């Protein structure tokens, strides 16, 4: 069976200060996979869409290894909370809060995200 590609005019936006930045089309987010977006200040955000359609955005930089790789991590849930596991050392980061689930002293930035 052939499935029709998803079509939508919705754009993903991140809140940066008082403004919203359009970063990509919703169709570029495959459930369970991340996408990196370059921000105006040179940082990167990792964007995720889960299988229920929820959107998440966190800093793409792994605080343990320093590389911008979180968008390439594996997604899952732990006690009902969505997370991404870094492809470097496998630390898990809560997609809603940015809290590292493996080291409570570490957290990554989260961004408010919407589809418009």
UniProtKB/TrEMBL annotation:
The keyword Iron applies. Keywords: 2Fe-2S, Iron, Iron-sulfur, Metal-binding, Nitrate assimilation, Oxidoreductase. CDD domains: Rieske_NirD. Residues 21-116 form the Rieske domain. It holds the Pfam family Rieske_2. It comes from the Bacteria. InterPro entries: NirD, Rieske-like_NirD, Rieske_2Fe-2S, Rieske_2Fe-2S_sf. NCBIfam families: nirD_assim_sml. This is Nitrite reductase small subunit NirD. It comes from Streptomyces bluensis.
């Amino acid at each position: 069976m052939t499935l029709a590609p998803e079509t939508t005019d919705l754009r993903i936006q991140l809140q940066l200060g008082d403004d919203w930045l359009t970063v990509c089309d919703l169709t570029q987010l495959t459930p369970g996979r991340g996408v990196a977006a370059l921000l105006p200040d040179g940082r990167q955000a990792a964007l995720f869409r889960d299988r229920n359609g929820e959107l998440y955005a966190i800093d793409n930089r792994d605080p343990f290894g320093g590389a911008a790789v979180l968008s390439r991590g594996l997604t899952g849930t732990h006690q009902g909370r969505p997370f991404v596991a870094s492809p470097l050392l496998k630390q898990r980061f809560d997609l809603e809060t940015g809290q590292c689930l493996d080291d409570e002293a570490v957290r990554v930035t989260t961004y408010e995200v919407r589809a418009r």
